[in-house]
Amino acid sequence: MPATSKATPRHFIDLADLDAATLRRIVDMAHAMKKAGKRPPAALKPAAIEDSILVMIFEKPSTRTRVSFDVAMRQLGGQTIGLNNTDTQLGRGEPLSDTAKVLSRYADAMMLRVNEHKTLTELAEHASIPVINGLSDLSHPCQIIADLMTFEESRGAIKGATVAWAGDGNNVAASWIHAAVLLDFKLRLACPPQLNPNRNVMAWAQKAGGKIELTDDANVAVKGADCVVTDTWVSMGDQDAPKRKQLLGPYAVDDALMKRAKNDAIFMHCLPAYRGHEVSASVIDGAQSVVWDEAENRLHAQKAILAWCLGVN
Ligand code: CP
Ligand code: NVA
User: Fold this and answer.
1) One digit per residue, pLDDT tens: the chain, 313 residues?
2) Which of 59, 136, 142, 270 to mutate to test the pocket of ligand 1 (most atoms within 8 A of CB)?
3) Which atom from ligand 1 is nearest to the alpha carbon of 60?
4) Which own/partner pairs from 141-144 qualify as long-range (CB within 8 Å, at least 24 positions apart)?
5) Which helix (H) or strand (E) holds 163?
6) Is the shortest distance between the CB of 270 and ligand 2 below 6 Å?
7) Catalytic residue at 260?
8) Measured between alpha carbons, how far is 204 from 122 in angstroms, rounded to an integer?
9) pTM
10) Catalytic annotation, pick one of 64, 270, 300, 309
11) Which of 178, 269, 298, 300 is catalytic?
12) Whose CA is nearest to atom 2 of ligand 2?
């Protein structure tokens, strides 16, 4: 486990950067944060959190990530500064390395939502405070901490379970793949071949011996699953909406597809959702959907991520 000194900050950029025990620890902390409510006890909080500031920078819109990180930091006792990219000199081309060094002199952690994943890795190279990935084109690890928590609340331990993904092999799918490898559950992804998950992420999973199955048939992926997950067909930054909608039509999660999963399977979606596209209203607003718990759990998960990044073991 990395040390907590400013020289070697605990970045949270990809789940694949963590070992299994650390990921398990963060999910357990998220469960504990939820039980603790609005005022987590000192044992769950980082030292000197009252003096800590989280800087948040957004290159893309956000509702859940922005508000849940802001509320999480305040409920832990710290403070936040939220900026859009264009508010900063980054928007005018200031080098990432300079920005990382300067923010490290003011704040205690930074969370960014970025267009290009390499923005995060470059910042992390030069920052002496933790860098947290609030979504990139490649991955969305904070979301998956909340999703793992949500699964476990509804269905018990995720180890050995089967999760099915139907739709675009996007950033959220990549973080699911990382989690499946680390926490040893089966992940069956159904994607149109043109929108398969990132090749490097799949190669990493294969090398690590993950139980990842890829098919182009949603019926195959969902059969007997404990959980069905999907996401928007057009992620932020995607240009080819009409083509994507055409390719992804057969992967829509509707009642017929849900019937192929276990009777007590749950449905998850990171939101924002587009009813009538990737999911029918009857599924997302139906009895098997846990999307509101999942959205709430972003708050508890952010507290756990912040606590870990700021030094809680
Ligand atoms: N799920 C998620 O990250 O939502 P926002 O885009 O609203 O932050
Ligand atoms: N895949 C989506 C997730 C939004 C939270 C996107 O990147 O837009």
Assistant:
1) 344 444 589 999 999 999 999 999 999 999 999 999 999 999 999 988 999 999 999 999 999 999 999 999 999 999 999 999 999 999 899 999 999 999 999 999 999 999 999 999 999 999 999 999 999 999 999 999 999 999 999 999 999 999 999 999 999 999 999 999 999 999 999 999 999 999 999 999 999 999 999 999 999 999 999 999 999 999 999 999 999 999 999 999 999 999 999 999 999 999 999 999 999 999 999 999 999 999 999 999 999 999 999 999 8
2) 270
3) 6
4) 141/12, 141/13, 141/14, 141/15, 141/175, 141/178, 142/12, 142/65, 142/298, 142/301, 142/302, 142/305, 143/65, 143/172, 143/175, 143/270, 143/298, 144/15, 144/172, 144/175, 144/176, 144/178, 144/179
5) strand 162-166
6) yes
7) no
8) 21
9) 0.97
10) 270
11) 298
12) 235
